[in-house]
From TrEMBL:
Protein name from the UniProt record: Leucyl aminopeptidase
SUPFAM superfamilies per UniProt: Zn-dependent exopeptidases (SSF53187)
Organism placement in taxonomy: Bacteria, Pseudomonadati, Pseudomonadota, Alphaproteobacteria, Rhodobacterales
Domain Cytosol aminopeptidase: 303-310
GO molecular function, one term: manganese ion binding
Highest taxon above the source species: Bacteria
GO cellular component: cytoplasm
Gene3D superfamilies: Leucine Aminopeptidase, subunit E, domain 1, Zn peptidases
Organism: Paracoccus sediminis
Keyword list, A-Z: Aminopeptidase, Hydrolase, Manganese, Protease
Amino acid sequence: MTPDFAPDSAAALPVWAVWKGDPLADQAGPWPKASGFSAKPGEICLLPDASGGLAGAFLGLGDRAVASRHRFLMAHAAALPQGIWRPVLPQGLDPDESALGLLLGQYRFARYKGAAHDGGTQFLCPEGADAARIRAQAAGEFLTRDLINTPANDMGPDALEAAARALAQEVGATIAVTTGPDLLDANLPMIHAVGRAAEQAPRLIDLRLGDGGPRLTVVGKGVCFDTGGLDLKPAASMALMKKDMGGAATALGLLRMLALTGAADRMRIRVLLPVVENSVSASSFRPGDVLTSRKGLTVEVNNTDAEGRLILADALALGAEEQPDLMISLATLTGAARVALGPDLPPFYCDDDATAGALSRAAMAVRDPLWRMPLWDGYESQIEPPIADLDNAPSGGMAGSVTAALFLRRFAHGAGRYVHMDIYGWQPVLAPGRPKGGVGQGARAILAALPEILPAAAS
């Protein structure tokens, strides 16, 4: 489905968003109290008119004092009856966040259920919100979610390439794809090594949009399914591995946002997606193999389940050769990041304090949380094995997200500034506007921070 607001309509019914204890509910007469309405988050009270029809509704927001714990409370409005609704927001509730919540609350992944969402409940854009920008963000997020939610039998490397081609056509981007043995000729050997065991060939997808202004390069990890390779994952760890292409999905969602907001008119955007399936066959790469990367650095493979950083390394090295002003990698990379910060708060790594500060502020402002972690030089020795330049899986298990970021940084040299985001790409429990399943992380924060990070792109 395409997220959108309803056109203005005189038939739209008001839905008042109400904090717990808000006197507004008392002003509506005895009905809300008699109905037991207490403005709990997501609680709805339908208001009758004099003839018994529907005059409007109250939507509970919960306790204002703990509102900072929650995001997109207006997404609960999706439970209202079919019709067109006009949101009325209380003072202090951000119109843009509320508008985005209304659209995100309408997301459904119904590809395999046989019944698509009918779109019968629609909303006018809240007063004061930037409808076009919110619509663009939701469109990008819906794309990311659909890609992650689709299982690997229908979202392998071929299908992910098809999705990238469809987006390129939609937004007017160019696309080039290097596949299979051609990766070796193009000096992308680690992408080939990781993906060569799968039935569908590994590939590097290269999208470009815009022809003027600063250069932004985004690299998204596209492991369409991760068995762990010969270091096979246990069943419990393999269950969610359709989401291991969440970095690529988020990168495509970000590209859609940049195009629809017009940001692509002011910068040169390049999206690089190394796309593979980490499978098991006679041609699988092995523990103990030493691979030579595009950059010329050798990598000892001490765990075939640490494959994401291998494919990202070649793509980062390729991207850095153009010396972009900013290069960002997005990847569902380490379990260590989840242990440290949980599923909702992805860590990011950046050597440049000004860039990191802009990202942190933007992330909090648009409720797309990120947390800066250190690129700690003292751990560099952990990724330097005796027989090769780098180790893809240092022993010991400590600081796993940090050492992964240090590994990637070796391949990003040449970019003006580099940011790595270790995202989860999955919503483990139902939350307002975020059903259980695939979710984008970091894209909206990047979109909001770019005018400060790349000011020439904002003019």
